[in-house]
Amino acid sequence: MKLVIGSRGSKLALAQTYYVKELLERIDKNLDIEIKIIKTKGDINQRAPISQLGLGVFSRELDIKMLNHEIDIAVHSLKDVPTLWNRDLTIAATPERESYYDVMVYRRDKEIGDNSIVGTSSIRRRAFLSLKYPGIKIVPLRGNLDTRLKKLRDGKYEGIVVAEAGLRRLKIDLDTLNLDSVRLEIPPAPAQGVIGVAARKKDREIIKLLKRINDSKTYLESSAERWALRTYGGGCQAPFGALARYDIRRRELHLICSVVDLENRRILEEEGRIKCDIGDIEGAKKLARDLGSKLREKIEL
Protein backbone atom coordinates (compact mmCIF):
# COMPACT_ATOMS: atom_id res chain seq x y z
CA MET A 1 0.00 0.00 0.00
CA LYS A 2 1.19 3.49 -0.88
CA LEU A 3 0.67 5.94 1.99
CA VAL A 4 1.40 9.68 1.94
CA ILE A 5 1.78 11.23 5.40
CA GLY A 6 1.41 14.98 5.84
CA SER A 7 3.50 16.77 8.45
CA ARG A 8 4.56 20.23 9.47
CA GLY A 9 8.22 20.92 8.85
CA SER A 10 9.44 21.63 12.38
CA LYS A 11 11.91 19.23 13.99
CA LEU A 12 9.32 18.18 16.55
CA ALA A 13 6.58 17.61 13.98
CA LEU A 14 8.94 15.53 11.83
CA ALA A 15 10.15 13.54 14.84
CA GLN A 16 6.53 12.65 15.60
CA THR A 17 5.83 11.82 11.96
CA TYR A 18 8.87 9.55 11.60
CA TYR A 19 7.83 7.84 14.83
CA VAL A 20 4.40 7.10 13.34
CA LYS A 21 6.07 5.94 10.11
CA GLU A 22 8.25 3.54 12.11
CA LEU A 23 5.23 2.15 13.97
CA LEU A 24 3.39 1.54 10.70
CA GLU A 25 6.40 -0.14 9.08
CA ARG A 26 6.72 -2.48 12.06
CA ILE A 27 3.22 -3.86 11.45
CA ASP A 28 3.45 -3.93 7.64
CA LYS A 29 6.88 -4.01 5.99
CA ASN A 30 5.30 -3.80 2.54
CA LEU A 31 4.02 -0.25 3.07
CA ASP A 32 5.41 2.38 0.69
CA ILE A 33 5.40 5.52 2.85
CA GLU A 34 6.12 9.06 1.66
CA ILE A 35 6.29 12.08 3.96
CA LYS A 36 5.09 15.39 2.57
CA ILE A 37 5.93 18.59 4.44
CA ILE A 38 3.18 21.22 4.58
CA LYS A 39 3.46 24.73 5.97
CA THR A 40 0.64 25.85 8.22
CA LYS A 41 -0.52 29.35 9.11
CA GLY A 42 1.21 29.05 12.47
CA ASP A 43 4.50 28.15 10.75
CA ILE A 44 4.33 31.03 8.28
CA ASN A 45 3.35 33.75 10.77
CA GLN A 46 5.90 33.64 13.57
CA ARG A 47 5.21 37.12 14.92
CA ALA A 48 1.51 37.32 15.79
CA PRO A 49 0.32 35.73 19.06
CA ILE A 50 -1.18 32.30 18.42
CA SER A 51 -4.45 33.50 19.97
CA GLN A 52 -4.83 35.98 17.10
CA LEU A 53 -4.38 33.37 14.35
CA GLY A 54 -7.63 31.48 14.99
CA LEU A 55 -8.49 27.84 15.55
CA GLY A 56 -6.56 25.11 13.78
CA VAL A 57 -3.54 27.34 13.29
CA PHE A 58 -1.23 24.29 13.16
CA SER A 59 -3.62 21.81 11.53
CA ARG A 60 -5.95 23.51 9.00
CA GLU A 61 -3.67 23.29 5.96
CA LEU A 62 -2.99 19.61 6.64
CA ASP A 63 -6.72 18.99 6.86
CA ILE A 64 -7.30 20.70 3.51
CA LYS A 65 -4.59 18.61 1.83
CA MET A 66 -6.17 15.47 3.23
CA LEU A 67 -9.66 16.43 2.07
CA ASN A 68 -8.19 17.14 -1.39
CA HIS A 69 -6.54 13.67 -1.40
CA GLU A 70 -3.04 15.19 -1.64
CA ILE A 71 -2.09 13.29 1.50
CA ASP A 72 -3.64 10.16 3.04
CA ILE A 73 -3.09 10.82 6.74
CA ALA A 74 -1.79 13.68 8.87
CA VAL A 75 0.26 13.56 12.06
CA HIS A 76 -0.70 16.20 14.64
CA SER A 77 0.11 17.19 18.17
CA LEU A 78 -3.42 16.38 19.28
CA LYS A 79 -3.64 19.36 21.63
CA ASP A 80 -3.45 21.61 18.53
CA VAL A 81 -6.42 19.99 16.78
CA PRO A 82 -9.73 21.84 17.35
CA THR A 83 -12.30 19.88 19.35
CA LEU A 84 -14.96 21.00 16.85
CA TRP A 85 -13.47 19.52 13.71
CA ASN A 86 -14.26 18.58 10.13
CA ARG A 87 -17.05 15.99 9.90
CA ASP A 88 -15.24 14.11 7.10
CA LEU A 89 -12.06 13.56 9.14
CA THR A 90 -11.31 11.52 12.24
CA ILE A 91 -8.50 10.90 14.70
CA ALA A 92 -7.95 7.24 13.84
CA ALA A 93 -5.03 6.52 16.18
CA THR A 94 -3.21 7.86 19.21
CA PRO A 95 0.07 6.05 19.92
CA GLU A 96 1.12 5.77 23.57
CA ARG A 97 1.23 9.15 25.29
CA GLU A 98 4.45 10.91 26.22
CA SER A 99 4.72 13.15 29.31
CA TYR A 100 1.76 15.49 29.82
CA TYR A 101 3.72 17.90 32.06
CA ASP A 102 4.62 21.52 31.41
CA VAL A 103 8.18 22.35 32.46
CA MET A 104 10.02 25.55 33.23
CA VAL A 105 13.36 25.52 31.42
CA TYR A 106 15.86 27.98 32.88
CA ARG A 107 19.49 29.02 32.68
CA ARG A 108 21.62 27.61 35.44
CA ASP A 109 23.23 30.97 36.10
CA LYS A 110 19.83 32.58 36.79
CA GLU A 111 17.31 31.64 39.47
CA ILE A 112 13.60 32.01 38.74
CA GLY A 113 12.07 34.35 41.27
CA ASP A 114 10.12 37.59 41.57
CA ASN A 115 10.37 39.76 38.45
CA SER A 116 11.98 36.96 36.42
CA ILE A 117 11.07 37.21 32.71
CA VAL A 118 9.38 34.00 31.59
CA GLY A 119 8.25 33.31 28.02
CA THR A 120 5.25 31.33 26.84
CA SER A 121 2.93 31.38 23.82
CA SER A 122 0.03 29.70 25.61
CA ILE A 123 -2.99 31.51 27.06
CA ARG A 124 -3.54 28.55 29.40
CA ARG A 125 0.02 28.61 30.70
CA ARG A 126 -0.02 32.38 31.10
CA ALA A 127 -3.30 32.28 33.04
CA PHE A 128 -2.31 29.50 35.46
CA LEU A 129 1.22 30.83 35.93
CA SER A 130 -0.07 34.31 36.82
CA LEU A 131 -1.99 32.83 39.76
CA LYS A 132 0.35 30.05 40.88
CA TYR A 133 3.58 32.06 40.45
CA PRO A 134 2.43 35.70 40.79
CA GLY A 135 5.90 37.19 41.16
CA ILE A 136 7.20 36.35 37.68
CA LYS A 137 6.78 38.53 34.60
CA ILE A 138 5.19 36.57 31.74
CA VAL A 139 5.93 37.73 28.19
CA PRO A 140 5.05 36.33 24.71
CA LEU A 141 7.29 33.71 23.12
CA ARG A 142 6.95 32.26 19.59
CA GLY A 143 9.03 29.93 17.46
CA ASN A 144 9.84 26.23 17.33
CA LEU A 145 11.49 24.54 20.30
CA ASP A 146 15.05 25.10 19.07
CA THR A 147 14.33 28.80 18.54
CA ARG A 148 12.82 29.15 22.01
CA LEU A 149 15.80 27.47 23.66
CA LYS A 150 18.19 29.73 21.72
CA LYS A 151 16.31 32.83 22.89
CA LEU A 152 16.62 31.56 26.46
CA ARG A 153 20.36 30.90 26.12
CA ASP A 154 20.85 34.32 24.52
CA GLY A 155 19.47 35.95 27.67
CA LYS A 156 16.18 37.26 26.25
CA TYR A 157 14.34 35.27 28.93
CA GLU A 158 15.27 33.87 32.32
CA GLY A 159 12.88 30.97 31.84
CA ILE A 160 10.56 29.52 29.21
CA VAL A 161 7.61 27.16 29.64
CA VAL A 162 7.39 24.24 27.21
CA ALA A 163 5.90 20.75 27.04
CA GLU A 164 8.19 18.09 28.49
CA ALA A 165 7.01 15.77 25.71
CA GLY A 166 8.71 17.94 23.09
CA LEU A 167 12.05 17.86 24.90
CA ARG A 168 11.84 14.08 25.18
CA ARG A 169 10.79 13.44 21.59
CA LEU A 170 13.67 15.55 20.30
CA LYS A 171 16.04 13.94 22.83
CA ILE A 172 17.27 17.37 23.89
CA ASP A 173 20.02 17.16 26.51
CA LEU A 174 19.61 20.31 28.61
CA ASP A 175 22.89 19.62 30.44
CA THR A 176 24.92 20.25 27.29
CA LEU A 177 23.09 23.59 26.84
CA ASN A 178 23.81 24.65 30.45
CA LEU A 179 20.07 24.59 31.08
CA ASP A 180 17.86 22.85 33.60
CA SER A 181 14.12 22.24 34.00
CA VAL A 182 11.48 21.70 36.64
CA ARG A 183 7.95 20.35 36.26
CA LEU A 184 5.20 22.89 36.96
CA GLU A 185 2.12 22.26 39.06
CA ILE A 186 -0.34 23.51 36.46
CA PRO A 187 -2.94 21.41 34.60
CA PRO A 188 -1.92 20.34 31.09
CA ALA A 189 -3.73 21.22 27.89
CA PRO A 190 -6.23 18.54 26.88
CA ALA A 191 -4.31 15.78 25.04
CA GLN A 192 -0.91 17.32 25.80
CA GLY A 193 1.81 14.81 24.95
CA VAL A 194 -0.48 12.89 22.58
CA ILE A 195 0.12 12.34 18.86
CA GLY A 196 -3.09 12.27 16.85
CA VAL A 197 -3.07 10.50 13.49
CA ALA A 198 -5.89 11.83 11.32
CA ALA A 199 -7.52 10.20 8.32
CA ARG A 200 -10.58 10.55 6.10
CA LYS A 201 -13.58 8.76 7.63
CA LYS A 202 -14.34 7.00 4.34
CA ASP A 203 -10.87 5.41 4.04
CA ARG A 204 -11.74 2.23 5.90
CA GLU A 205 -8.61 0.32 4.88
CA ILE A 206 -6.34 3.11 6.14
CA ILE A 207 -8.31 3.47 9.37
CA LYS A 208 -8.09 -0.29 9.93
CA LEU A 209 -4.31 -0.04 9.51
CA LEU A 210 -4.02 2.92 11.88
CA LYS A 211 -6.04 1.16 14.57
CA ARG A 212 -3.15 -1.29 14.85
CA ILE A 213 -0.85 1.46 16.16
CA ASN A 214 -3.48 2.92 18.48
CA ASP A 215 -2.97 2.85 22.25
CA SER A 216 -6.43 2.32 23.78
CA LYS A 217 -5.55 3.90 27.13
CA THR A 218 -4.21 7.06 25.47
CA TYR A 219 -7.24 7.21 23.16
CA LEU A 220 -9.68 6.96 26.08
CA GLU A 221 -7.87 9.56 28.21
CA SER A 222 -7.37 12.09 25.43
CA SER A 223 -10.98 11.68 24.29
CA ALA A 224 -12.21 12.52 27.79
CA GLU A 225 -9.97 15.59 28.04
CA ARG A 226 -10.95 16.92 24.62
CA TRP A 227 -14.68 16.37 25.18
CA ALA A 228 -14.48 18.28 28.47
CA LEU A 229 -12.94 21.23 26.61
CA ARG A 230 -15.46 20.92 23.80
CA THR A 231 -18.32 21.08 26.30
CA TYR A 232 -16.79 23.96 28.23
CA GLY A 233 -16.17 25.93 25.02
CA GLY A 234 -13.45 28.36 24.00
CA GLY A 235 -11.36 25.92 21.96
CA CYS A 236 -7.60 25.57 22.21
CA GLN A 237 -7.26 29.17 23.40
CA ALA A 238 -9.34 28.82 26.58
CA PRO A 239 -7.39 28.98 29.89
CA PHE A 240 -8.52 25.39 30.42
CA GLY A 241 -6.61 22.33 31.57
CA ALA A 242 -7.66 18.71 31.84
CA LEU A 243 -6.07 15.42 32.80
CA ALA A 244 -7.64 11.98 32.54
CA ARG A 245 -6.00 8.85 33.96
CA TYR A 246 -7.32 5.34 33.40
CA ASP A 247 -6.53 2.68 36.01
CA ILE A 248 -6.49 -0.59 34.07
CA ARG A 249 -6.47 -2.79 37.18
CA ARG A 250 -9.47 -1.04 38.76
CA ARG A 251 -11.16 -0.33 35.39
CA GLU A 252 -11.70 3.26 36.49
CA LEU A 253 -11.36 6.55 34.62
CA HIS A 254 -10.52 9.66 36.64
CA LEU A 255 -10.87 13.10 35.07
CA ILE A 256 -9.97 16.47 36.56
CA CYS A 257 -10.67 19.75 34.75
CA SER A 258 -9.55 23.26 35.68
CA VAL A 259 -10.14 26.73 34.28
CA VAL A 260 -8.88 30.17 35.25
CA ASP A 261 -11.57 32.72 36.04
CA LEU A 262 -9.63 35.72 34.75
CA GLU A 263 -12.13 38.30 35.99
CA ASN A 264 -12.07 37.10 39.60
CA ARG A 265 -8.50 35.77 39.50
CA ARG A 266 -9.27 32.28 40.76
CA ILE A 267 -8.93 28.68 39.59
CA LEU A 268 -12.13 26.66 39.27
CA GLU A 269 -11.97 22.87 39.31
CA GLU A 270 -14.20 19.84 38.80
CA GLU A 271 -13.32 16.16 38.98
CA GLY A 272 -15.08 12.83 38.68
CA ARG A 273 -14.64 9.10 38.25
CA ILE A 274 -16.49 6.33 36.44
CA LYS A 275 -16.10 2.58 36.19
CA CYS A 276 -15.65 1.64 32.54
CA ASP A 277 -13.85 -0.60 30.09
CA ILE A 278 -10.79 0.76 28.31
CA GLY A 279 -12.76 1.06 25.07
CA ASP A 280 -15.77 2.85 26.58
CA ILE A 281 -15.45 6.15 24.71
CA GLU A 282 -19.12 7.01 25.22
CA GLY A 283 -18.73 6.64 28.99
CA ALA A 284 -15.67 8.90 28.89
CA LYS A 285 -17.59 11.49 26.86
CA LYS A 286 -20.48 11.44 29.34
CA LEU A 287 -18.13 12.09 32.26
CA ALA A 288 -16.36 14.82 30.30
CA ARG A 289 -19.59 16.56 29.30
CA ASP A 290 -20.75 16.54 32.91
CA LEU A 291 -17.56 18.15 34.23
CA GLY A 292 -17.27 20.60 31.34
CA SER A 293 -20.85 21.76 31.87
CA LYS A 294 -20.32 22.23 35.61
CA LEU A 295 -17.23 24.38 34.98
CA ARG A 296 -19.06 26.48 32.41
CA GLU A 297 -21.88 27.07 34.88
CA LYS A 298 -19.40 28.08 37.58
CA ILE A 299 -17.61 30.58 35.35
CA GLU A 300 -20.91 32.14 34.31
CA LEU A 301 -22.11 32.74 37.88
TrEMBL record:
Keywords associated with the record: Porphyrin biosynthesis, Transferase
E.C. number(s) listed in UniProt: 2.5.1.61
Summary of the function given for this chain in its UniProt record: Tetrapolymerization of the monopyrrole PBG into the hydroxymethylbilane pre-uroporphyrinogen in several discrete steps.
A UniProt-annotated Pfam family: Porphobil_deamC
Necessary cofactors: dipyrromethane
Name this polypeptide is given: Probable porphobilinogen deaminase
InterPro entries: HemC, Porphobilin_deaminase_N, Porphobilinogen_deaminase_C, Porphobilinogen_deaminase_C_sf
NCBIfam families (alphabetical): hemC
SUPFAM superfamilies: Periplasmic binding protein-like II, Porphobilinogen deaminase (hydroxymethylbilane synthase), C-terminal domain
